């Protein structure tokens, strides 16, 4: 059974049982507490907490998805038989629709009957820190199969914490199949909300959150000893010559695959946040490419093969093939110039500690993993934690220098953060420009555009919205024209606080169907009667539109099924 057949079986199984198919969200989450989308449940968090209504949005209290995920904690372990940075998570979810019995029965039926796998044993939560043992799940498993072995484990193994700093969580039951040493399916029973201070309170809506990695499942179904022997990875691994050892082949395949998906979702290599992770992945692979003296076409062939393997499931990969290749070449050209000098300097260094490792990174772009590996014994005391502390220390020094130059201190206003007043002013202008572009698009497309996330830095704005097709060049030009007309008219931007119900009655647009507090802030662009834009927002904003400057839409692209993304700058 090839991987696409497994996908199809999973989705059809749950769709036939009343689950609404929800497309994968972007790898760049709307949740500001996490860097990437790390789990299938992440896009569904508002439905577990009651901030959004699944019945209203999906027409069902149950959903199924295959979610793109990135987990950076595993970068150092990639190269073994099971760890990955990018993976796809098969998941079924319920937001008050069904509970433990149905979730466990679905898992058992799918694994044993649909896939023909034999369950070795299952695990349940044994109880810990005032949270009782999950005897209910144990009884359900035994009622399905009295001969099944049920093992009990503590919070480290069978209690799933919140995605991010806070959120829904609860005990879990995990499924292990014969021939595979790691679990293939994790069923989480979200019945608590974990606050930032790690206090647990019962959720009003109990929910099911399951996760089953496609790569691990495929290795079990295809009876492979590890994930890199499956038809997801074997085509990539086979493009690499035998002179490269198996661990490096795995790293290259994993890192290039993750990089392709990050580039597709709009991440560009940099020294900050998501871009920093992308750069680490690409450059580690490029070091191995350099060490093996591989011709450039091999990595190009691997990238093309990745797009071929996943292009039918994620059409945006095919649409952005040239863009992906160009971004890859840009980073490769930049790095290769400094790589040989960096390796020579590394080899000359007697002892590599956090400080010397950061200098190698700062001067030559060598990633931590490469410094650690090439440095060997000289880098035996070097740790990721120490390296990151040194990197953050230098960031603080740079930030302090910027504040000294421009005045001010670290600033937080509403949902924006900035190192200094100048940066905050730039982000404020871009924030208001986002509202203007959204309103302009609504006028051009003659319909509402539900927003699905936004991100603003000092250089550009980016926002996602739900729309079924690519926008034409004429539509984008017309929206840009309307947006700049509003800027040139120098209309006033006013803020009003009012009850949420009054805000909606006044025509104010909300965001992602969240439940707002009783009193909200409403920003209106233009006169109260005949306004151009009116949205519920935490701010900050300019006071008049001429303060923004000229708006330029730089890109419109697909993010995931049904979602589009706009990027723009101000000049």
Automatic annotation (TrEMBL):
Protein's UniProt name: alanine--tRNA ligase
This enzyme's EC code(s): 6.1.1.7
Keyword Nucleotide-binding: yes
Keyword Cytoplasm: no
Domain named Alanyl-transfer RNA synthetases family profile: residues: 1-571
Gene Ontology MF term list: alanine-tRNA ligase activity; aminoacyl-tRNA deacylase activity; ATP binding; tRNA binding
Example GO biological process: alanyl-tRNA aminoacylation
Enzyme class at the top of the EC tree: ligase
Keywords, sorted A to Z: Aminoacyl-tRNA synthetase, ATP-binding, Ligase, Nucleotide-binding, Protein biosynthesis, RNA-binding, tRNA-binding
Highest taxon, organism lineage: Bacteria
Species: Candidatus Yanofskybacteria bacterium RIFCSPLOWO2_02_FULL_44_18
SUPFAM superfamilies (alphabetical): Class II aaRS and biotin synthetases, Putative anticodon-binding domain of alanyl-tRNA synthetase (AlaRS), ThrRS/AlaRS common domain
PROSITE patterns named among the record's database cross-references: AA_TRNA_LIGASE_II_ALA
Pfam families in the record: tRNA-synt_2c, tRNA_SAD
GO cellular component terms, A-Z: cytoplasm
Family listed: Belongs to the class-II aminoacyl-tRNA synthetase family.
